[in-house]
Design goal:
By secondary structure, the chain is mostly helical. 69% of the residues lie in helices and 0% in strands. It contains 10 helices and no strands.
């Protein structure tokens, strides 16, 4: 996967690498989705879970997945459950609680935070793989810059801010805004 991408990981190919038959692998993993979950869990072993800053940890998780966009896309549809994923999940919950987030809001918010990280990595990673990404980005930027103020007053007013900041600044702000929202938005009864 590291060398050729997730698309090239098949049960048949993996079995060949392990010098066994594909049917033998199904003793250990029931499906490709389960295999993807195991691959994710292996990668998550690289995260520094000793971090005391929640936003730093979430950014690290996002960057890890950015390095594997096809896995990030797959993870969007998975329900990971490996030990390293559970450690990440537990650590995010602990950091939310340490920040004073009420228990129920932390329990609901952990999903939002990990989903945002995964979706961001899947989206940006897919763009990075696209040969047309620069052209598409240029078209959007140009369309916004040339949008008539009479028709698009809010775009005209804020067009200088829409693309401001670095990717890292924007990612850190997104996570900070989500954490603040999780901390201050009560759960409905």
């Amino acid at each position: 996967m590291r060398d050729e991408g997730l698309e090239r990981v098949t049960m048949r190919r993996l079995a060949g690498e392990l010098d066994t038959g594909p049917a033998s692998l199904y003793v250990y993993v029931a499906s490709m989705a389960e295999l993807h979950g195991a691959l994710l869990d292996e990668l998550l072993g690289e995260l520094d879970l000793a971090r005391d800053a929640l936003v730093d940890l979430l950014c690290e998780y996002t960057l890890l997945l950015l390095g594997h966009p096809s896995l990030a896309r797959s993870v969007l549809a998975l329900w990971p459950s490996g030990p390293n994923y559970l450690r990440l999940f537990d650590r995010v919950l602990g950091l939310l609680r340490a920040a004073g987030v009420p228990a129920r809001q932390a329990a609901w918010g952990v999903d939002v935070l990990l989903q945002h990280a995964t979706a961001t990595a899947a989206e940006q990673g897919t763009r990075n793989e696209s040969v047309d990404a620069d052209r598409e980005g240029y078209r959007l930027t140009t369309a916004i810059e040339e949008a008539p103020a009479d028709d698009y007053p809010n775009l005209a007013h804020l067009r200088g801010e829409l693309f401001s900041g670095t990717g890292e600044q924007r990612l850190r702000w997104q996570f900070s805004a989500l954490v603040q929202g999780i901390a201050t938005t009560t759960i409905p009864e």
